[in-house]
Amino acid sequence: MKEAKLDKGMLHTLELENFKSYKGKHTIGPFSRFTAIIGPNGSGKSNLMDAISFVLGERTQSLRVKKLSDLIHGAPINKPVAKSCFVTMNYVYGDGGKTKSFTRGVNNGSSEFKIDGRQVTVQQYNQEMEGINIFIKAKNFFELSRSHDFQQEYDRLKIEMNKAEDDTQQNMNKRRGIAQEKREAKMEKDEAEKYQIMKDNVATKQKILYLHQMFHCERLIKEAKEELTEQKKAISHLEKNKAEEDAKVSSVQQDYKKSQKEYHKIERKIAEKEKDLMTQRPLAVQAKVEVQHHQKKLETAKKMLATAESMEEKSKGQYDALVERKKEIEQNKREFEEEIAEMTQKQELKLSDEQVNEYESLKRKALMESGRVEMELMSAKQVLDTDKSNINHELRRKTEHEQRVNTKEEEVERLKRQIEHLQAKIKETDEAVKDKKSGLGHIEKQVIETKSRTAELNKELIDVQRKLSEASGDSAEGERNQKRNECIDNLRRVFPDRIYGRLVDLCQPSHKRFQLAITKVLQKHMMSIVCDTEETAKDAIAYLKEQRYQPETFLPADALDVNPINDKLRDIKKPAGVKLVFDVINVNNQAARKALQFACGNALVCEHQDDAKQLAYGGSGLPDRYKAVAMDGTLFQQSGVMSGGSADLKQKAKKWDDKVVRGLRETKNKLIEEITTLSKNRRKELDVEVERNKIKEEIMERLETELETLNAELNMLPPRIKDLEEKLKKTEGIVGGLEKQSNAVADKIFEQFCAKIGIRNIREYEDRELRIRQENEDKLRSFEDEIQKLKYEIDYVQSEDGGKKVKTEKEKVSRLEKEFKELKKKEKNEASSLKELEQSLEDEKERLAEKKEIVQKLEIELNELKKAAQAATREITAAEKSFLGLESVVTRKQHERHTLLHSAKINQINLPLASGSLADIDYDDFDDEDEDMETDASTSNGNGPSVSQEQLDRESHIKMNYSLLPRENKEVEDEDNVKKMTDRLNKEINELQNSISSLNAPNLKANQRMEEVKEREAESTEELETARKKAKKIRQQFEKIKTERYRRFQEFFDPVSNAIDDIYKQLSRNSSAQAFLGADNMEEPYLDGVQYNCVAPGKRFRPMDNLSGGEKTIAALALLFAVHGRNPAPFFVLDEIDAALDNTNIGKVASYICETAREQMQIIVISLKEEFYNKADALIGIYPHPAACTTSGVLTFDLTNFKQIGINEMTENVPPAAAAAATTA
């Protein structure tokens, strides 16, 4: 290939070894100023693009592989051809055509970088690339302008500047606050001095108030304790008396309970024996009746046995005679067959083969000459045969009718025997009826019970119908419900014992108030179908699809993953009324229990929404959260999701009522069926009697009719036979005349043949042979008919097997005798058991009467003792009540004393003490009002805080010094006067406190606070000055770096922005085209984005996203060429930029590259369209080699010699020089 003159840096050649689809070593190039890479899809064009990206330092993720080793040829199919691969870029630069090679390879899964054969680090490699203006990391203006070099320093200084300004502002605010605080401290100091004077007056008044209350509280405690000592002695005496009465009651009560227990035990035993007796009495009566009944049956069976034996003797004689007759006829038949064989041997005329042939030839000749006569003779013979056949038929009919008459007569005889047997059965039944009448009372009782049961069932039926009416149960079900019910009925029929039913039908809420809550929890599983295994569920689903039913949800018991029930949830006390949803549902089926547990889980049901919310959101004090539902159907889940009850939920809850309605409907049908059955049983006896008479009448009528018909037919047969015989004689005359004519012709033709074989005429031969054969066949047939007839008669007699019947009757008699013995034994046992039960019942009743008398006596004695004990208890209760009242007074006053001491300690009132210390008093939690001076109300009611007895005992050692208390306060004893004096002191204290309150409680440490404020004012002034100096210095540094960063960005951005419009016009070949490039942030453009918009020729302005694919491509190329113009790279690599371009735009882009861009840069494009790549200086063709792993081949072609020739002309007539220029790489 001809090399272009290189006056500036450009890509010269690429060397590839085992890189992706390029197996082995390939040298691609040299590349011209405008080189196009072409080839079919899948040939490896993109792999060549990846090779260029790879050698320029692109990351692995951008090379369409997961790891570096996948770049080796064959690695994607786990058949790498080598352990390494490499790509070398030979770069030519300078006027002298200097060459520099950049090599990047993969060896043992890692990258290797070389420059001119010398291995370097990746940083050195990238630095060398940047030296020739190849920035692999440059993706936008920010990086291309290199303003990002200042980013780290810019960000650091900006943060420091913001922090310094914040510190300055905080110090300034702090200094203002201190000045305000100084003014407030001076005012507090003046108020504190005035406040202290008034405070001292209040303390004196409070001390007198506390001493006054303590004095009268201790006086009342002393008086109450003296009364308690006397009351305690009285209670001790009363308790001793009560203990004696309780001992007596306990002793008698034990005897009473023991006797009562024995009494109830005897009562239970009597009830059991009466129950056993009620059961045993019918059994004894039934056993007796069964013995009598079986005795009658046994006598009847013995009579039937005698009758059967008599009939067997008669039938046996008839059978022997028929068998003997059959043997005789079979013997005659054998003798006749032997006679025929002997006659055939003696009389047979044997002809030679020649004579037989001659006979057949003459016979044919005779038939031809006497053809008409023979036809008439044949016709007459056919009539003759027909008449004979008719006579034989009528004779057979006569014989059959005679046999049928005989059979009917025998059947009449047999019917008579059956009638005798039936009469015997009737007699036996009548005797059984007589036996039953002996137990008429029991039967009448059953009849009454049946009527009563019928009445009860009718009543239940009316009640059920009423309930159905109330529940609208009798109304027609909706079509959908009917379909669903039909579906489950069919499934249970097709899969019995495997489909259990819908979950809603297998369980029931324990109470109606739980219906909404249970419906909410089971909502999506209520109508699910429960089955035994997953296999059953699959079969059922297939059946539903086949029958075109709606889809259903199945819960197979063996496939459900069920979490165990948490038993601790059953012990929840707070909130009250919490239950497991599983526990408020009744279910019996084990598989349904598992399905229900799967649907419910550990969900809880609560009385109120607030309780459910606490359990679900962790506010109930429990360690975990739980799914909870309120009675109104509001559901709270652990995740925080809440769903409320709705009208739809109430509608679904009616499923439980629908289930009850279905149950009522089934009950109604069962009741109607049972009533119908009872009615049928009452009509049963009458129906049997009617049917019995009907059968007897039908049998007799049928037999009489058949006998009359047979006799009438038998009388009609002789005249018909006579007519046929006369007709036969006429036909025989006609046949005789025709035979004479035929014989004359035959005698003439067979005259010589007959002379040869020694007979008078041919008929002598034919008649003898045919006649003998016919006679023999007729006689043998008569023998067969007679034998067959005898067989039928023998079979008929055998069917009337008398021996079998005798055997049956004997077995019946034997069975009845055995049953009779067992029933007699059973009767004896039942009677004995009845007698024993009656005697045992009488004994127990006597014991019960004796024990009842003992119990009554003990009960009277016990009641008297209990009354005495209750009287003693009431006396003790009255005394204890009085004692507790005194104790309450002591305790209340002790608490009042404690409260006064506690309040004095909290309020820091120094009470004068004779002994002890206020340090023995513990601090308790008091309300704010207890800290006020109004202590009289709380102490007088004794509602102070709970105090231990140990604390009260410690405080009893504290003694007051009442020398400061005025005499008038000590001498007053009346409670009203004490209270009035207390109120007066409280009033004086309140007036003083109100005056103090109006002073707004000044700060008693105002002097100290004033000194502290002055010190902090000096410190804040110094800190503020330091912060101001620091902020000013950092701002100056930041402004400097900001200015430098802006300058560097604009140095790159402005030329691109200025040039892009001209380039877009040149690419569009239209001066009306416009391109705009502007920064979003004009002050600091590198912080925000850059807006790029274009107006296509002849169109209005539209956003970039709304441009067509070709317009976007032109706009993108304009931006690329403008950027390249500011910071030119040595070459451009463009991948299929003509894909979205039409032929017009392709021509524009190609013209721009050829006219303008090619002079400024080297361009390498992957192109799919001839209109574009035919403008290139050189072509690199990529083609695939067929193989398991795609292998690419390379062709290069120089187009500089063909610039004046079209591509089509070049293809048709390639010059020899051009053909020689194409080489294979």
TrEMBL record:
<dbReference type="InterPro" id="IPR003395">
    <property type="entry name" value="RecF/RecN/SMC_N"/>
</dbReference>
<dbReference type="InterPro" id="IPR027417">
    <property type="entry name" value="P-loop_NTPase"/>
</dbReference>
<feature type="compositionally biased region" description="Polar residues">
    <location>
        <begin position="937"/>
        <end position="950"/>
    </location>
</feature>
<feature type="compositionally biased region" description="Acidic residues">
    <location>
        <begin position="922"/>
        <end position="935"/>
    </location>
</feature>
<dbReference type="GO" id="GO:0007062">
    <property type="term" value="P:sister chromatid cohesion"/>
</dbReference>
<dbReference type="Pfam" id="PF06470">
    <property type="entry name" value="SMC_hinge"/>
</dbReference>
<feature type="domain" description="SMC hinge">
    <location>
        <begin position="497"/>
        <end position="616"/>
    </location>
</feature>
<dbReference type="GO" id="GO:0016887">
    <property type="term" value="F:ATP hydrolysis activity"/>
</dbReference>
<keyword id="KW-0132">Cell division</keyword>
<dbReference type="GO" id="GO:0003677">
    <property type="term" value="F:DNA binding"/>
</dbReference>
<feature type="coiled-coil region">
    <location>
        <begin position="147"/>
        <end position="349"/>
    </location>
</feature>
<feature type="coiled-coil region">
    <location>
        <begin position="661"/>
        <end position="741"/>
    </location>
</feature>
<dbReference type="InterPro" id="IPR024704">
    <property type="entry name" value="SMC"/>
</dbReference>
<keyword id="KW-0158">Chromosome</keyword>
<dbReference type="Pfam" id="PF02463">
    <property type="entry name" value="SMC_N"/>
</dbReference>
<dbReference type="InterPro" id="IPR028468">
    <property type="entry name" value="Smc1_ABC"/>
</dbReference>
<dbReference type="GO" id="GO:0051301">
    <property type="term" value="P:cell division"/>
</dbReference>
<keyword id="KW-0498">Mitosis</keyword>
<protein>
    <recommendedName>
        <fullName>SMC hinge domain-containing protein</fullName>
    </recommendedName>
</protein>
<feature type="coiled-coil region">
    <location>
        <begin position="773"/>
        <end position="882"/>
    </location>
</feature>
<dbReference type="GO" id="GO:0005524">
    <property type="term" value="F:ATP binding"/>
</dbReference>
<feature type="region of interest" description="Disordered">
    <location>
        <begin position="922"/>
        <end position="956"/>
    </location>
</feature>
<keyword id="KW-0131">Cell cycle</keyword>
<dbReference type="GO" id="GO:0008278">
    <property type="term" value="C:cohesin complex"/>
</dbReference>
<feature type="coiled-coil region">
    <location>
        <begin position="391"/>
        <end position="432"/>
    </location>
</feature>
<keyword id="KW-0175">Coiled coil</keyword>
<dbReference type="GO" id="GO:0005634">
    <property type="term" value="C:nucleus"/>
</dbReference>
<keyword id="KW-0539">Nucleus</keyword>
<feature type="coiled-coil region">
    <location>
        <begin position="975"/>
        <end position="1044"/>
    </location>
</feature>
<dbReference type="InterPro" id="IPR010935">
    <property type="entry name" value="SMC_hinge"/>
</dbReference>
<dbReference type="InterPro" id="IPR036277">
    <property type="entry name" value="SMC_hinge_sf"/>
</dbReference>
<comment type="similarity">
    <text>Belongs to the SMC family. SMC1 subfamily.</text>
</comment>
